[in-house]
Amino acid sequence: MAEVTTPYATGTPCWVDLMAKDQQAALDFYGDLLGWQGRPGPAEFGGYAVCELNGKAVAGIGPGAAPEGMPEPPTFWTTYLASTDAPATQEAIVGAGGTLLAPVMDVGPLGRMLVAADPQGAVFGVWQPGEFSGAQVVNEAGALVWNELHTSDVLAAAAFYGDAFGIEIVPLEGADAYWELRVGNRAVGGCTLLANDPPGTPAHWMTYFAVDDVDSTVDALVKRGGTVLAPPFDMMAGRMSVVADPQGAPFALIKPTPM
User: Fold this and answer.
1) Distance between CA atoms of 49 and 85, rounded to whole angstroms?
2) What is the H or E stretch that residue 95 is in?
3) Using CA atoms, how far apart are residues 170 and 190, in angstroms rounded to an integer?
4) pLDDT tens-digit profile of 147-188?
5) Rounded to 5 degrees, what angle do the CA atoms 7, 128, 45 make?
6) Which pLDDT value is given to residue 62?
7) Out of 27, 106, 218, 252, which could bridge 208 as a Cys pair, Cβ 3.0 to 4.6 Å?
8) Residue 50 predicted with pLDDT over 70
9) Which residues contact 43 (CB under 8 A, 6 or more apart)?
């Protein structure tokens, strides 16, 4: 298991979470599919569940009911980028042309967070650690393995994430129209053109979870009410599939090619 034992560098994806209309159904689905253990948390934190894989925090699932009289919000996985100073990062996001959706808030002693959108509309979170740094296990079956920005303007995205987080977006050698997100000369995520998505898809961050067998996991997902958006296929990084859970949240499954 690839445990994370050091703090995430600023700009590195450090956590993902899902606000589900039916939280318990989501907990059951991902527990069956990826082997997570999780249950609704304390009321003081809105019932937010920190899901674990073999005792290590791997992702969050919270209740996503809309306020009374408001339409149900879309269900999607949110990628959180690490920061050592959330208020300063908030200022940098706004200064770089981003939109603030939820300003900096304290999450008890665990840390501080905010939610924003980049100038192309891709929503992301920011996490400043307190007692909790983020995902405690990554790059293993059942855990987060990759975060990918889908954008309509790579140059504008590079300028924004560079100004706000110090992230570099550079072409991936050997790939056609694919870019790496780099922090301190280390690849921490990917970037692709929104034109490769179905027409009408908004800019977004895609969450990838690693699995041991993509095809059998996709079969299990379908049996549990999920939807296949892109059937399993082979690509330079491994075998993958794009899917959605029964409540409509899209994500990707991948068995990475051994390095």
Assistant:
1) 25
2) helix 86-95
3) 9
4) 999 999 999 999 999 999 999 999 998 788 899 999 998 999
5) 115
6) 94
7) 252
8) yes
9) none
Q: At what angle do helices 23-34 and 214-223 cross, to 10 degrees?
A: 150
Residue 60's SS3 state is: strand
Give SS3 for 161.
Answer: helix
Which candidate, 63, 59, 61, places its Cα nearest to that of 46?
Answer: 63
- Against a cut of 0.85, is the pTM above it? yes
Spatial CA neighbour of 131 closest among 102, 165, 104, 107:
107
89: phi then psi, degrees, rounded to nearest 5? -65, -40
Burial 215-242 (b: 16+ CB within 10 A, else e): eebbeebeeeebeeeeebeeeebbbbbb
Alpha-carbon distance of 132 to 177, in angstroms, equals 36
Residue carrying structure tokens 């140059």: 155
Exposed (0-12), middle (13-18) or buried (19+): which is 23, by Cβ within 10 Å?
buried
Q: Distance between CA 24 and CA 35 in Å, rounded?
A: 15
* Strand intervals (E) in 54-185: 56-63, 77-82, 99-107, 111-117, 123-129, 144-151, 168-171, 178-183
Average pLDDT score over the chain: 94
- C-alpha span between 41 and 232 (Å, rounded): 34
Is the pLDDT reported for residue 239 higher than 60? yes
Give the whole-angstrom CA distance, residue 53 versus residue 142. Answer: 7
